[in-house]
């Protein structure tokens, strides 16, 4: 018998967990994440799912249509395969984490998808369309710097030739980790449904255990390079310095202020300083800005004003600043008819999300997509404090099974 939800969750809990912070380090294609990938294949095998992988590290376990049903379906009129009523149905999420991340972001969707397959079988459901449980690689962008890397490559919105040279912090290229090439995993997929822990407090405030996503805010990652002149911290007069740290500090404050004024999001969560000496004025500060906004225009305006204020400060400090967009994802509206079909009969709230997801990549690539959220009582994510109650998780499994049954 395959493991149930609680047994599967118990299997995953210790993998990649820090003994000091309690957070998770499950970076793509490294030991902890590879252990989870092997676990997923074992769980698929226990359920008799046919496992298919691509050259980018993405994996799908397929529950194929039984032969008699295949013959019956073949006699029906052909339909558009990119439609909620035709083609294969895909569910799942990812198994990688941010640095020192939470347990639920990603793995909850994978474990829930496997548990939903079990529940569908208990209900006697026989699929008339293939059902896949998928795991996308490098969703967080925590190793190679580009979020939703696996799904971008699988959908073809990112070419392998452009991705192969991406490097991690040690300088290892993506092409040295995966074979690359092309992917056919999504060729027959007509619908994608991703279950995810909510990364905020909307469901908590609504006192709802499950919600449906309406849209994903546009978001981007921008590298900010500030260059100055290294010098002695003691002998260099303050007025004689070209200190890039001052320019960066003002830029971080400006980003915070502009985001607050406009109701958007701006975060500097990663900084690199050269030469990184306690008694030296830095020669360079490189920082990464995560910016998110309620519309594409609002995102562009936020980044523009932060860039302008950084440049103005650099002119006063005698430094130079350059802002480079490393990845930008436009706003994504999920299939409205599909969202309404899921939410309306059940009374589930329909809410936006400010976090990026593989679901957004598939929707933007033309695959009708829906997202289910499970309540997070702390509202905290990308942190060891991220959590979800077991009762809510099991409600999420039942909700996902209901959705998949309707599609199948």
Automatic annotation (TrEMBL):
Positions annotated to bind Zn(2+) 2: 105, 140, 382
Binding site for allantoate: 221, 279, 292
Keyword Membrane (UniProt): no
Gene3D superfamilies: 3.30.70.360, Zn peptidases
Domain of life assignment: Bacteria
Gene Ontology molecular function: hydrolase activity, acting on carbon-nitrogen (but not peptide) bonds, in linear amidines; metal ion binding
Domain Peptidase M20 dimerisation per the UniProt entry, residue ranges: 221-316
Binding-site list for Zn(2+) 1: 94, 105, 196
Keyword tags: Hydrolase, Metal-binding, Zinc
The record's free-text note on cofactor binding: Binds 2 Zn(2+) ions per subunit.
Cofactor entry: Zn(2+)
Family to which this protein belongs: Belongs to the peptidase M20 family.
NCBIfam families in the cross-refs: hydantase, PRK09290.1-4
Name the UniProt record assigns to this protein: N-carbamoyl-L-amino-acid hydrolase
Species, as recorded: Nocardioides lianchengensis
């Amino acid at each position: 018998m395959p493991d149930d939800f609680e047994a599967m969750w118990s299997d995953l809990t210790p993998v990649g967990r820090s003994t000091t912070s309690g957070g998770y380090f499950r970076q793509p294609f490294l030991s902890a994440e590879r252990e989870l990938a092997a676990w997923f294949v074992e769980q698929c095998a226990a359920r008799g799912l046919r496992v298919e992988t691509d050259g980018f590290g993405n994996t799908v376990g397929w529950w194929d249509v039984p032969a008699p049903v295949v013959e019956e379906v073949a006699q029906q009129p052909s339909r558009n395969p990119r439609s909620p009523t035709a083609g294969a149905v895909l569910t799942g999420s990812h198994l990688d984490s941010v640095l020192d991340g939470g347990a639920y972001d990603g793995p909850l969707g994978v474990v829930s998808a496997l548990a939903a397959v079990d529940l569908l079988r208990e209900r006697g459901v026989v699929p008339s369309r293939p059902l896949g449980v998928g795991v996308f690689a490098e969703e967080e962008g925590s190793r190679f710097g580009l979020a939703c890397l696996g799904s971008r490559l699988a959908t073809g919105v990112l070419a392998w030739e452009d991705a192969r040279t991406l490097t991690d912090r040690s300088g290892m290229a993506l092409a040295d980790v995966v074979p690359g090439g092309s992917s056919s995993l999504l060729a027959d997929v007509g619908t994608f449904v991703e279950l995810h822990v909510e990364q905020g407090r909307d469901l908590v405030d609504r006192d709802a255990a499950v919600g449906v996503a309406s849209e994903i805010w546009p978001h981007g990652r921008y590298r900010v390079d500030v260059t100055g002149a290294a010098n002695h911290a003691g002998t260099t007069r303050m007025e004689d310095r070209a200190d890039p740290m001052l320019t960066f500090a003002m830029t971080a404050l400006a980003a915070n202020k502009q985001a607050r004024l406009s109701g958007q999001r701006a975060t500097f969560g990663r900084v690199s300083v050269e030469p990184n000496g306690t008694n030296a004025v830095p020669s360079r500060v490189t920082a990464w800005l995560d910016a998110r906004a309620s519309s594409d225009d609002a995102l562009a305006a936020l980044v523009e004003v932060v860039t302008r204020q950084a440049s103005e400060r650099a002119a006063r400090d005698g430094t130079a600043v350059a802002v480079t967009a490393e990845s930008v994802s436009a706003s994504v509206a999920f299939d409205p008819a599909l969202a309404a079909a899921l939410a309306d009969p059940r009374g589930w709230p329909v809410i936006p999300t400010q976090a990026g997801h593989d679901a957004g990549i598939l929707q933007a690539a033309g695959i009708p997509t829906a997202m289910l959220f499970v309540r997070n009582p702390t509202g905290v994510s990308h942190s060891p404090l991220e959590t979800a109650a077991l009762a809510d998780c099991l409600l999420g499994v039942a909700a996902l099974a209901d959705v998949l049954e309707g599609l199948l």
